[in-house]
Amino acid sequence: MKYAPLAAIALCLSATAAAPALAALKGDAASVEADRAHMKGFSQVTPGAGYSVHEIRTPEGMVVREYLSAEGKVFGLAWQGPKRPDLQQLLGPERYAEFAKAATATRQPDRRHASVQLQDFVVHSAVRLGNFYGRAWAPELVPAGVSTDQIK
Amino acid sequence: MKGGAVRKVLALVLISAFIFAGCSGGGGGYGGSSGGSSSGGSSGGSSSGGTCCGNQVPLTAGPPNVEPLVVDQGPAASIAANSPAINTAFVTIQVCATNAPGTCATIDHIQVDTGSSGLRLVAGALSSGGITGGPALLAALQAKYVTNAGNVTMTNCVPFAIGFSYGSLTTTNITLPVSTETANGVVTQLIGDPNYVSAGGGNIPLSCSNPGNASPAPPEMDDVVSFGANGLLGVGISPDDSSAALYYACGPCTTASNPVAPVAGQIVQNPVTLFAMDNNGTIVQLPAVPNAGTTNPTSPPGVIVFGIGTEANNKLGSAKVLAVNLQNPGMSGPAITAVVNGTTYNDSFLDSGTNFLGISGAAVPGSLQVCSSANNGPGGPWYCTNSGLVAFTATAYGQTGNPPVVTAVSQNADFSIGDTLTAFTANNGNNTAVPNLGGQNGADPESVDFGLPFFYGRYVFTAIEGGTPVAGAPPAPWFAY
Asked: Is the terminal CB of chain B with fewer CB neighbours within 10 Å at N or C?
């Protein structure tokens, strides 16, 4: 997660005022900007074939990558850093509540892992040695030919 | 984003595989003289009957450095709450107050965790866990808090994948009763200390409990059932928890309290580093268990051996040393490399605090499917299959640098994953040791989390960063088996 993408990087140091706190997952580019503003980070966009990656970095070392399809929808998220990110912001309040409820209602492995597969989205959250990391995606929005393993 | 690095490492793996093609046993090694551990290697685990994993037999517990473990259903409260442990190793520790040396309690079901550092005790286990002398010990520990220069009680917060544990810091003297290993002045987290988590004693800082002010709030894991143990003995690669925990100097805190940087004397240390002699690491030795799973394997029981190369019984023997890369750029942090079914996983690690074998990505065959809502509810990472045991061909490598490169040392890491529902329901639902329990490691598709099932039948060494060097091994941290 700490490498700069190898492809051409379009750096956009956006200073736009915070947009409404739309969910990033299943949201659009505006929701990515809302996340960036919420995290007080800066972002850069890496265009790619079939999707683009919007990477948000914060001064305290959090990295969030949001994957936008050609249709402009956020189909996946990945995060890493010294804190657990604000999943309510990244997933959206309703999906966060659904995730939190499912994660406590189902048999999870141990304190360091929480994974849920819900009707329309998937979340994997983990922590190890003070390093928080995880991924989330909306399966029906993942572009054809793109593996969820590419969300990272 | 790591494609270039992955390809580079894979190329090196292929090169080293070529170079070492003539070697037997999976690679060259830092194998020292053969000491107490004479048997070695692993024997695969793909047959549906029989016994899984390695064939090494745990040492007999006793002085000066071998402490027995159990892999059972956990504390009485967990069993009563129908929340039994699985693939979780527990130890019993005698804990004494530093301010009242005769005030001690022998606390069962302290989880042994090679994936974190520090001693943590659940206050509720002492106050109402049925532990002889528990309430008196709790009172003594509450009279000996770790304080800052202003005499303000320090507290400590460990955030987890969704929840957290929070409590005061106190000091303890501990003895591992069978091995007689002792450590004094151990800075210890008192999880759920009612003096600091109740409404009357102060609130938990939101920066610990719920930084995003999310609804519902992340679960507080401050009692025995939610924590899953009476305490935790973190014996990981770090000498302390300063990179993994939040510290506060505000007891009693408010919801608005902010973390502080702890200084020496306030930091939760890896207790092993405080032992007189055997202080540079551990060996977790669990018995081989049947593929069908079992309840608390005791013939022989598992043990944790303290020290590496410090006694006649804790030499590396046939173990291969796998350097842990602190510069690993991957999502999971410090790591080794595993090549599984031909796919490179550069963010891999061994961890007794993970109770399953975690793997996602290209190495997972279609015969393993995430247990679906039709058979296991809407969640969890667990794999289900109707193909019996699904075998993975794997090799583990040490790793260094950024971008990461693998070391010449490697070791066979074959494992198998079976059907989780079968594991949970077989043996009348009483399985506590299941060697083929597996699931997605979905948070990082480039990581294999070699959890506790991998430890069955193996001697798994965890060398602590900064510890006394071991002859023939690189500087710690490293894993070896």
From this structure: N
pLDDT tens digits for B241-294?
999 999 999 978 999 999 999 999 999 999 999 999 999 999 999 999 999 999
- C-alpha–C-alpha distance, residues A80 and B308, integer Å: 33
Nearest CA to B356 out of B370, B344, B367, B366 is that of B370
Q: Show which of residues 29-48 on chain B sit within 8 Å of chain A, judged by CB atoms.
A: none
Look up residue A131 and give its amino acid: N
B358 touches chain A (CB under 8 A): yes
**Rounded CA gap, B322 and B334, in Å?**
12
Phi, psi of B383 (to 5 degrees): -95, 140
In tens, the pLDDT along B214-247 reads: 999 999 999 999 999 999 999 999 999 999 999 9
Q: Is the dihedral of CA A90, A95, A101, A105 positive or negative?
A: negative
Collapse the DSSP code of A15 into the 3-class scheme (helix H, G, I; strand E, B; otherwise coil) and give the result: coil
E-only strand ranges, B58-116: 66-68, 90-97, 104-113
In terms of C-beta density within 10 A (0-12 exposed, 13-18 middle, 19 or more buried), how is residue A59 classed? exposed
- Is some CB atom of chain A closer than 8 A to the CB atom of B381? yes
- Rounded Cα–Cα distance for residues A117 and A103 (Å): 9
The total of other beta-carbon atoms located within 10 Å of residue B374's CB is: 7
Span between the terminal Cα atoms of chain A, in Å: 7
**Smallest CA–CA separation between A14 and chain B, in Å?**
23
Q: Give Cβ neighbours of residue B270 (< 8 Å, ≥ 6 apart).
A: B117, B118, B234, B235, B236, B238, B239, B240, B464
Q: Which residue has the tokens 């029981």?
A: B301
Across the interface, do A1 and B446 touch by the CB < 8 Å criterion? Answer: no
Q: Chain B residues with CB inside 8 Å of A103's CB?
A: 162, 379
Amino acid B202: pLDDT: 67
Scanning every residue of chain B, which has its alpha carbon at the shortest distance from the alpha carbon of A83?
A: B159
State both tokens at B322: 């796998």
Predicted TM-score of the model (pTM): 0.89
**Given A1, A88, A110, which is nearest B214 (Cβ)?**
A88
